[in-house]
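Why do we care about 3D structure at all? Because function follows from shape, and shape follows, mostly, from sequence. That is the central idea of this module. The next example makes it concrete: a single protein chain, its amino acid sequence, and then its structure expressed as tokens.
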Amino acid sequence: MSSIDIICIGEVLIDFIGHEINTSINRTKDYHRFLGGSPTNVAVNASRLGLKSVLVASCGQDGLGDYVVRKLKSNNVNTASIRKSDTAPTSVIFVSKSTETPDFIPYRQADCEIFESQLSDETIADAKIFHTTCFALSKNPARQTILNRAKKAKELGLKLSIDINFSERIWPDREEAKQVLKEYLANDPLVKLSEDDCYRLFAEVKSEDYIFDYFHNLGASTICLTKGKNGVAVSDVKEGLLFQEAAKIDEIKDTTGAGDAFWTGFLFAQIENKSLNECITIAQKLASIKLQNVGRLPDNINIKKIIQE
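And the structure:
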């Protein structure tokens, strides 16, 4: 029996999210501090669903790094694979609060200093899912570490996963990004991406058919495309095309981290051996809770109970 449900490897950072809604960063006066980074959000969300999650990441030997570790521990995320850099400070991102796709300015420092020594074969062998992001693959040494450890995870029978959260601000070289994604997708990961991600990766609008064919051809069997208010489409080589309408939400308060909440729900349902349709439903439930709250998923609700209703 695996004692770890999910290994998340990649960026840990501090999100400074603007206080005023739908205002540019230029106009934002006040920011509130949140633990951030897509794999970090997934690790925290997974833990709050009762899963055992490990985060493999690096922060600075500084006050923000101490805050990172404190927040992870308070959320019962295993921090044994967190490294504190002696030379680079904790990475931070300033984000405008938005009901659409938020504007952001990244200050990347320690997040890409991930080394193979942080994740042993024994730890990998003890897990079910190995998850990472396009952001994490954008810079070495993290990139090579993740590619090497992903190969080992595949050999050891884990299900792999990736959020293709591509942004040219994080990774200016699109062609390099496509080559690295090709290498990761050869491991047949579960793929999550949004229409915005696709637009940024291909630098133009592509049809759903094009997107699904592109990633299936690289080796991914299951591809989940989120389309905001236009719902969710999943293309699976065995089950074909599935579609669900978007969940109805009265008031969207903050979109930051909604994709991570969605994907945690999807991976949770995968671990629970749910059908693909149930995976999408559970994912949408978790995302809709996040969209109605600023920052992380709220503390005062039984999330596991809500998504299993």
